[in-house]
Amino acid sequence: MKKLVLFSFVALLTCTLSAQITTPQPSTSSKIWQTVGLTEVTVDYSRPSMRGRTIYGDLVPFGKLWRTGANAYTKISFDKDVTIANQDVKAGTYSIFTKPGKENWEVFFYTDIQGGGTPRNWDDAKVVAKTTVPVYKMDMPVETFTITIDDVTNNGANLGIIWENTYVAVPFGVKTDAEVVKSIEKVMAGPSAGDYYAAAVYYANEGKDIGKAKEWMDKAMAMVEKPAFWQLRQQSLILAKSGDKKGAIATAKKSLAAAEEAGNMDYVKMNKDSLKEWGAL
Description:
Mean pLDDT: 92
Number of strands: 9
Strand content: 25-35%
Low-confidence stretches: 12-16
Shape: elongated
Number of helices: 7
Order of helices and strands: HEEEEEEEEEHHHHHH
Helix content: 25-40%
């Protein structure tokens, strides 16, 4: 019985000591971030090392699906829509799988992003983009698997995959020109109704130039086909602050009717309270 208790204590002590030891992972995790044009791109992956092994054609067989790294799926994220081999890819996060070959690689961008190894049941419907890219041989071997974002321009870049003496580049495009042109057109067209409205409300709430707030609110309302009850509410308050009680009452009544139609009882009460204050109820 004493031997059994002693054995159990030693086993428990050994487990406790083992749990306190921290050692490096064989394939360390890495995350890269790059702005391409106006698009933010991140890659989250693990980095195995050669450690004297032959990689392509041996550890990573030719012609078979590979997780393109180690441990969990290698993932790439785009914060805006991009194109890959003339295929539109929506903003989001995707896993990267490849089929390495001697001369070319097949590259797949896949919607499932949780898991390790390769998907147990591959689904072509989950492939948002695929392409075939050539292999470039390097004179100097690279010990640790590396992903880069190379040849960055305003309109795209290359997703680089480097290991052993192999480099492949997967081009992707970003829609910088369309975004810039849209931004230019918006600015050149002048402030929007929302811009005028936000400026007017800020000026009114902060006790700034109420005349300017009224001018901006008038411009905002003139640009809106059917102002909402909450917009009318703010306009009535600005009119009241500017000394136009008649205009404030008329606008508050419009806001009240619209709020009743929308079933928003908070705004119904606020408008009624203001109308009472202004002697209209």
